[in-house]
Amino acid sequence: MRAARKPAAEIAALAAGCPVLVVSARQELGLDALMEHISPGETCVLIGSSGVGKSTLVNALLGEERMATQEIRAADARGRHTTSHRQLILLPGGGLILDTPGIREVGLVDADEGLSTVFDDIEQLARNCRFRDCGHSSEPGCAVRGALEEGRLDAGRWAHFQKLSQELAALGVKKDRMAQEVERRRQAMLQRVYRSAKKDLRS
Fold first, then answer.
1. Above 90 in pLDDT, residue 10?
2. Per-residue pLDDT for 67 more than 60?
3. Which of 54, 30, 24, 40 is nearest to 90 (CA)?
4. What is the Rg, in whole angstroms, of the alpha carbon atoms belonging to the chain?
5. Contact status, residue 152 vs residue 124, Cβ threshold 8 Å
6. Least confident of 62-66, 86-90, 110-114
7. pLDDT tens column, 168-201
8. Hey, which of 8, 40, 43, 104 would disulfide with 96, CB 3.0 to 4.6 Å?
9. What DSSP string describes the chain?
10. Statement: residue 146 has pLDDT above 90
11. 108-136: b or e for each residue (b if 16 or more CB lie within 10 Å)?
12. Is the whole-model pTM more than 0.70?
């Protein structure tokens, strides 16, 4: 339990404002605390790689072996892919939980507001920089760099913020390109319609 507290604290430092729970379905650890986050009529979803124990966790919350599971592999002590479809399960307390197949990647979609909410502390620091367009690298009077140097801002949290910001920026560029392509095709179609109508008038 003590060994688990340190990683939980480190994760909590990176995810300010987000509850971090240590849960073990096999040891029945943290299940009550998790259930407190699933209110009656509320739907929660389990996401994660194949074989990490999502279905095992659902069974533990249900108090019965309803979801199919498999033993971990002896060769590498990893779980095996079992769930092949999404399933919505009603829990004893009236909450709902969605068990999903393993996923390889989680992406960001329209997450600008969420990023600002989760990293509000960094947003507040950035507002105190000397220059409005501060890049937070070597500019004088950078409040973000000052907080990092003084230990008031965790370096891992700052790196996480930068990574997500870059991903959102790349997503925005991709969306702009897609919008431009849609508009180009629309204009091309209008030109074809116009030429066809003009040809018909001449004939």
1. no
2. yes
3. 40
4. 25
5. no
6. 110-114
7. 877 776 667 777 777 788 888 888 877 887 777 7
8. 43
9. -HHHHHHHHHHHHHSTTS-----BTTTTBSHHHHHTTS-TT-EEE---STTSSHHHHHHHHHTS--S---PPPTTT--------S-EEEE-TTS-EEEE----S----SS-HHHHHHHTHHHHHHHHTSSSTT--SSS-TT-HHHHHHHHTSS-HHHHHHHHHHHHHHHHHHHHHHHHHHHHHHHHHHHHHHHHHHHHHHHH-
10. yes
11. eeeeeeebeebbebbeebbeebeeeebeb
12. no
* Res 142: pLDDT: 94
- CA dist 31 to 61, 63, 155, Å? 7, 11, 32
How is residue 145 written in tokens? 């760099």
- What φ, ψ does residue 183 adopt, rounded to 5°? -65, -40
Token pair in block for residue 157? 């949290």
The mean per-residue pLDDT over the stretch 27-53 comes to: 84
Token pair of 15 as six digits: 């995810």
Angle at alpha carbon of residue 7, lines to 168 and 59, rounded to 5°? 85
CA atoms of 154 and 9, how far apart (whole Å): 12
User: 48 is written with which tokens?
Assistant: 């994660």
Q: Which residue has the tokens 């930068």?
A: 162
